[in-house]
Design a protein that fits this description.
The complex is a heterodimer of chains A (about 500) and B (about 700).
Chain A lengths: L1 H5 L10 H17 L3 H8 L17 H27 L4 H16 L14 H18 L12 H22 L6 H22 L14 H26 L5 H33 L3 H39 L7 H15 L4 H13 L21 H17 L4 H8 L10 H15 L11 H4 L14 H7 L3 H10 L7 H16 L1
Helix pairs in contact in A: 4-7, 4-8, 4-9, 5-6, 5-7, 5-11, 6-7, 6-8, 6-9, 6-10, 7-8, 8-9, 9-10, 10-11, 12-13, 12-16, 12-20, 13-15, 13-16, 14-15, 15-16, 16-19, 19-20
Chain B lengths: L5 H23 L25 H19 L18 H10 L2 H4 L3 H7 L12 H25 L2 H6 L3 H30 L9 H26 L3 H7 L1 H11 L9 H15 L1 H20 L4 H12 L10 H4 L7 H7 L2 H9 L6 H9 L20 H16 L10 H11 L6 H14 L16 H9 L12 H5 L11 H4 L13 H4 L20 H10 L7 H7 L8 H7 L9 H4 L22 H6 L6 H14 L39 H7 L8
Helix pairs in contact in B: 1-6, 1-8, 2-3, 2-5, 2-11, 3-6, 3-9, 5-6, 6-8, 8-9, 9-10, 12-13, 13-14, 13-19, 13-21, 14-18, 17-18, 18-19, 19-20, 20-21, 20-32
The chains are: A mainly alpha (about 500), B mainly alpha (about 700).
Chain lengths: ~500, ~700
């Protein structure tokens, strides 16, 4: 196939070849999932055999209704709260304004990262919102600051939070960033939960605590904040479940685990905010607000840095393809397969991320080669050469700003498995599998000289060996057999077993 | 302790004694009246410490210790930059102690936490673990004592007792700054006493800079103190430590990096280095030159960093060019030239997805455009070319001329500027050329300065120094000073360049020969001073007598060129240009140290000028026929073992001398970015498509 591409000199000026390679890589990866049924169908000629339909796990029918209900509840609560507050007037307007400003600023300087990557892009705003609710708790216990009291106290809290969040969203949206209404809805519902809880505790219901027992304030506060954060996590899991992510319990567990650190910080900070304002009046707000704002800016910078790191890794992974050392999309396929194997082995999210990043970078060392290896396969190489490539790749990985484990995994990917950390073992096995199976689904490789209209391969892909590589490639069972053979020294048998399970599951699907 | 020098030992022992003396009143005084009863009394002097001061002291000490213990397991570890004291995220607890407690008791708060922390000999710049722990405890105790004294002196305790925030702000900030200054000052003193890396008192600006975060911690400490005095008591105050610990755990001992693109730039530069080491040094010099031009043009400070990045990464697209092509010995076919001219687009494809490099991307894509529209890839003309690209084009050409290649020596700076001027208007933007000339007049240029990473030390600090100095204060002077250190300095007069500037040589194809200038080291003798400068253009003839017979301590020609270069002091050079301090490493960098981190397996890919062709390449080729013959020979041998020779391809319609630089030392990338202006100008009448 490589040759066929090369001998097409009349292709139009494909100056976008580098970009196209990437596009083809992605398309290739999609093709990879479709088995060879298409070919079979064509061969059969007659009535086509029904191709297996790939459907994702069907989302249960009520899920969209639940999401709709959640949005609807948030909207209704906001409207009701705003209406009630407008009618009754705002109590302690100074405090309300100050907290509102804090929330708005927090939203305005939120992290500019996709919601899937950053669980809490605006911790300052959440802190302000929860702090305002907690202030009601503090005041309810007998603080001096006149605060939300009475049967409609929750309304003011919700109203302030909604108004401030929407106001704070105006600058980013005006600059063209997505608004993520889901987050605001979740926050509104969490604040409403907490405010209602606060009301229950202090407004004379049978559950009410005796006023003036200050020593109970802090535990109650923490309980309230914990409730708010739990409800937000539950709502986030609900939305994720509606998007089709699997069983709800697992999603909830993931959300809680992902939020435990940020949640603890946000909860504690909002408690401190409420207590400080309850003690020292409104002056405490800028006092606490300044460190919080600085922390938010630091979080934002760090998120942007992480995003840049991820983009750099992706760009480096494409570099070998642009340079013609590896088949397009190879790094992504190895990363995806490595993630599946890691999940099969029961690794945590962080370890999976390490595997994915190291898999994207594992071939970068090949940039130092004078001539590309056939199909970018490093498995057949002598150990010294493979180690050299791995070491050079590790040097590049160290500069990317990824955690040190990623660089370690890249650097040690050619070592015998007993000397390797687990991510490196996974990558080695998966890479070997991909090389041995000839990277099925890899589309035809880019021939850079094809752009310039010549059949000579003056330094293009090493297509001369491409066909031999393919001829040597066998099916997946043969590849697995080879991996088992090498598992005394080179490949970790547990990882090979996990890979076998993953492959079998994919074949069955 | 025995490993430390005498002065350091005395310093540490002195500090410990002083700390013990400060804390003595708290230790020896018997418990007395409750703390809350008479707040003012314990603060009046280092005298009595109230009985109930013990409980807050113990609690705060526990809180501080807990905070430090939590941060020990931070994923960032405790590796702090060696030149600054480690940033302590738990200091709000200490400051709260300073605000709440009498000075003597406050001095005791940090002791347990400091002693249990991980031993970090780096804090002392080396030395045994116990010494560093004891030193840390003493330093923190003294700093806390000082800050508590400052707080008391500024009238803080009364304001605090009254929960009067506005009045308490000033004493709190003052106390926090005192804490920071004391801490930093003590640390600097210790480093000066220990000597070694990071020693010295540093600049006052750095000192103030390291104190600024403590002002913010002072605010947090004030909140803690407020809450302590509130009806909600100590639990509320200790709650503050939770978000502090989380922040410290998340961000590590350094403040978060200011700019997000540094890691991206470093990684791409490292990747390019894998392929072609010359391109890396070249990129860094082009970055420095671009900053020079931009500063001279009066661009804003943020733009300077953009230009630096654009210059450093402008040839990143060479990653997409097949290595064999980059190192080819022999003329390039038109198809190969076409492949190489794809490198701007390759570079664009590579950085397209990295958002923080968006502005540099235009320079990467368009740095080969020419003002008259005959450049590539898009043939933009005049103002259509982005400004960044125009600047980088000029800087690229300048460095290409003033750096040593495998096939020719570097030219003197004045010669290079002359040639840039000649091509201004047709190829380069005259404004940028003028700016460069002015900047060079003012600051001089240090050719072939080698950055720390290239010299083999690719530590994070080194690279941070190289990339983080967006402010290139101008490579002041001493450009002549440094080449003196390098016997094979690239600034030696260029003989072989004569071949490069022969546009109307009969075989217009025979452009820059690797043969000619020879490899710098092989031609360390004056081999290339001998021999006629065949078909040298007029400017080079003018240059030739000027440089003729110049010895290799090449200071003299440069002193002629740049009037005030020789005056600059060396440490201004070091401070101004990140690589300047390593200029002396030029020779070694081009020697074995270059390959410090490569195995012997790499040797086959390295071409040493001692090889046969390397020796031959030192000679000059008087006739074009011989040049052709040589190229044919070189083409036959092929392979990486060939030294020296790389024949240029045909001139090409746009006058770009296609030269695939070879692996010969230095491991040169191809010069494709600019034609030697002389023959670009002269080529206009000879539009010669194929050559």
């Amino acid at each position: 196939m490589a040759r066929a591409d090369a001998s097409a000199p009349d292709q139009p000026a494909r100056r976008t070849a580098p970009g196209a390679a990437d596009g083809r890589g992605e398309r290739g990866s999609r093709h990879e999932r479709r088995p060879a049924h298409t070919a079979e169908r064509q061969r059969a000629g007659g009535a086509p055999a029904p191709a297996p339909v790939h459907v994702s796990v069907p989302v249960p029918v009520p899920a969209p209704l639940l999401v709709f209900a959640a949005y609807g509840a948030a909207l209704a609560l906001s409207v009701a709260a705003l209406g009630l507050t407008a009618r009754r007037g705002v109590e302690a307007p100074g405090t309300a304004l100050a907290f509102g400003a804090l929330i708005a600023v927090g939203e305005a300087v939120r992290c500019r990262v996709a919601p899937a990557r950053c669980r809490e892009p605006a911790p300052l705003a959440t802190t302000g919102a929860l702090g305002y609710v907690a202030l009601g708790e503090v005041a309810g216990a007998g603080g001096e600051v006149a605060q939300v009291t009475g049967p409609f106290g929750w309304a003011q809290a919700v109203a302030v939070v909604v108004a401030a969040s929407l106001a704070g969203l105006v600058p980013p949206v005006a600059l063209g960033q997505p608004a993520h209404p889901e987050r605001v809805a979740r926050r509104v519902l969490a604040v409403a939960c907490a405010a209602l809880g606060c009301q229950l505790l202090h407004s004379g219901t049978p559950l009410g605590l005796p006023v003036g027992v200050e020593s109970l304030v802090v535990p109650c506060l923490l309980a309230l904040l914990g409730l708010a954060l739990l409800s937000e996590a539950a709502l986030a899991a609900l939305f994720a479940w509606a998007r089709g992510g699997g069983p709800y319990a697992a999603l909830l567990g993931t959300e809680l685990r992902a939020r435990r650190v940020v949640g603890a910080a946000v909860g504690a900070a909002s408690g401190v905010l409420a207590l400080a304002v309850g003690t020292a009046g409104e002056w405490a707000l800028p006092l606490c607000g300044v460190p919080l704002l600085l922390a938010q800016l630091a979080v934002r910078r760090r998120a942007a840095g992480r995003e840049a790191d991820r983009q750099t890794v992706a760009s480096l992974a494409r570099a070998t393809e642009i340079a013609g050392y590896t088949p397009p999309g190879h790094a992504r396929r190895v990363a995806r397969l490595g993630r599946s194997v890691g999940r099969e082995l029961g690794l945590s999210g962080r370890a999976l991320a390490v595997i994915e990043d190291a898999a994207l970078l594992h071939d970068v060392g090949q940039l130092s080669l004078v001539d590309p290896y056939p199909a970018g396969a490093t498995e057949p190489l002598p150990a010294s050469e493979a180690r050299r490539i791995a070491r050079l790749g590790g040097a590049v990985a160290r500069q990317t700003g990824m955690p040190a484990e990623v660089a370690d995994a890249v650097e040690r990917q050619a070592a015998p498995y007993r000397e390797q950390p687990l991510p490196a073992r996974v990558i080695r096995v998966v890479n070997a599998y991909a090389d041995l199976t000839g990277d099925p689904g890899a589309p035809s490789r880019r021939e850079p000289t094809g752009v310039c209209g010549t059949g000579e391969r003056a330094g293009g892909r090493a297509g001369r060996d491409g066909d031999e590589g393919r001829a040597a490639a066998g099916g997946s069972s043969w590849a697995l057999g080879r991996l088992w053979e090498g598992s005394e020294r080179e490949y970790d048998p547990e990882v090979v077993a996990a890979l076998a399970r993953v492959v079998r599951r994919d074949a069955d699907a | 302790m025995r490993t430390l020098p005498q002065s350091a030992r005395l310093y540490i022992v002195g500090a410990v004694c002083a700390a013990a003396f400060c804390a003595a009143p708290a230790l020896v005084t018997a418990p007395s009246a409750a703390l809350g009863a008479d707040v003012a009394e314990p603060f009046t002097g280092p005298g009595g410490v109230g009985a109930d001061a013990w409980f807050p002291t113990a609690l705060l000490a526990l809180g501080y210790a807990g905070c430090r213990a939590a941060l020990r397991r931070s994923p960032h570890g405790t590796t702090a930059p060696a030149s600054r004291p480690p940033f302590d995220w738990c200091s709000p607890a200490l400051l709260a102690g300073a605000f709440l407690l009498p000075p003597a008791a406050a001095a005791l708060v940090p002791v347990p936490g400091a002693l249990i922390g991980r031993a970090a000999p780096a804090e002392l710049g080396g030395g045994p673990a116990t010494a560093s722990r004891g030193w840390r405890a003493a330093r923190l105790a003294l700093a806390t004592y000082g800050s508590a004294a400052a707080f008391a002196a500024l009238g803080g305790p009364a304001a605090l007792a009254a929960a009067d925030l506005p009045r308490a702000l000033l004493p709190a900030t003052g106390a926090a700054l005192a804490y920071g200054l004391l801490q930093a000052g003590l640390d600097r003193g210790a480093r000066a006493a220990v000597g070694g890396r990071g020693a010295g008192w540093g600049r006052p600006r750095d000192l103030c800079g390291s104190c600024a975060p403590y002002a913010v911690h002072g605010l947090v400490g004030l909140v803690m103190a407020l809450l302590w005095h509130s009806p909600y008591g100590p639990p509320a105050a200790l709650l503050v430590l939770v978000p502090i610990s989380v922040a410290g755990w998340a961000f590590g001992p350094r403040a978060p990096e200011r700019a997000t693109h540094h890691a991206a730039v470093r990684a791409l530069v490292q990747a390019v280095d894998l392929k072609d080491r010359y391109t890396r040094g070249h990129g860094e010099r082009v970055g420095a030159a671009s900053v020079l031009i931009a500063r001279e043009l009066g661009m804003a400070a943020e733009r300077l960093e953009v230009l630096r990045v654009a210059g450093v990464l402008h040839d990143v697209g060479k990653l997409g060019v097949p290595t064999r092509l980059l190192r080819k010995n022999g003329p390039l076919t038109p198809q190969e030239r076409c492949v190489i001219e794809l490198h701007p687009e390759h570079g664009d494809a590579m950085v397209r997805d990295i958002a923080c490099l968006a502005e540099a991307r235009s320079a990467i894509l368009h740095h080969h455009e020419r003002l008259d529209g005959s450049g590539y890839p898009h043939g933009l003309a005049g103002r259509d070319i982005p400004e960044v690209a125009r600047v980088v084009a000029v800087a690229d050409a300048f460095d290409a001329m003033t750096s040593t290649r495998s096939y020719r020596r570097a030219r003197p700076v004045s010669v290079a500027v002359e040639e840039l001027r000649r091509c201004a208007g047709s190829q380069f933007d005259p404004r940028m050329v003028r700016a460069l000339a002015r900047a060079l007049d003012r600051h001089g240029w240090q050719p072939e300065a080698v950055t720390p990473e290239v010299a083999g030390a690719s530590g994070a600090d080194g690279s941070r120094a190289a990339d983080g100095t967006g402010e290139c204060d101008g490579a002041t002077g001493a450009a002549c000073g440094v080449p003196d250190a390098a016997p094979a300095s690239g600034t030696a007069p260029v003989r072989g360049a004569a071949s490069e500037v022969a546009p109307d040589a009969a075989s217009a194809g025979a452009r820059e020969r690797a043969g000619d200038g020879g490899t710098a080291r092989a031609a360390a003798d004056d081999r290339d001073d001998a021999g006629a400068p065949h078909d040298a253009g007029a400017p080079h003839d003018a240059g030739a007598p000027h440089d003729a017979g110049a010895p290799h301590d090449a200071g003299a020609p440069h002193e002629d060129e740049a009037s005030h270069e020789a005056d600059a002091s060396h440490d201004r050079v070091g401070a101004a240009y990140p690589g300047a301090a390593y200029g002396g490493a030029y020779a070694s960098a081009y020697g074995a140290a270059y390959d410090a981190d490569c195995d012997a397996e790499d040797a086959t890919e390295r071409v040493w000028p001692g090889g046969e062709l390397g020796a031959r390449s030192g000679e000059l080729w008087p006739t074009d026929e011989e040049r052709e013959a040589f190229s044919g020979v070189a083409g036959e041998r092929g392979g990486p073992a060939v030294g020296g020779g790389a024949a240029p391809g045909p001139a090409g319609a746009r006058g770009v001398p296609e030269l695939s630089g070879d692996l010969s030392f230095p491991r040169a990338g191809a010069l494709r970015s600019v034609a030697a202006p002389a023959h670009a100008a002269r080529r206009a009448p000879h539009t010669d498509g194929q050559g």
